[in-house]
Amino acid sequence: MDAIGIAASALTTHRKWMDAISDNLANINTATRTSEAAFQERFIEVVEKRGTEGVEARSVQFGDPEGRLTYAPDHPLADENGYIRLPDIDMGAQMGHLILAQRGYQANAAIVDRAKSSYEAAIQIGRS
Hints:
The model has no long low-confidence stretch (mean pLDDT about 95). The radius of gyration is 21 Å and the shape is elongated. The chain contains two helices and four strands. The strands form two sheets. The protein has a two-stranded antiparallel ribbon with strand order 1-2. A two-stranded antiparallel sheet has the order 3-4. It is α+β, with helices and mostly antiparallel strands.
């Protein structure tokens, strides 16, 4: 059952990665006052479990709270100079990471399916 356990750990890790990316994309236009910190981009720290036990999403790391200043004098949160603070998140990079996480999830789901089929075939051979 090693293949299923390893692939399952990767499925969990890819799901957490996609959660962080979706959080980043959902908050890409979240404005704050210039005196406050901007939304901080989420990153997932992934470590290999000992031996061949798979991987684990250990923690969430946060990006730069500085963000970027944007001139928007009509925004309700604008300061006296007309600026607001937005997160410094690149949508193109996030979409690229989302595709990678999605493909990794699909690949590991296929591994679970193939391993299950192999184990079922071995059980059928044992019954014969």
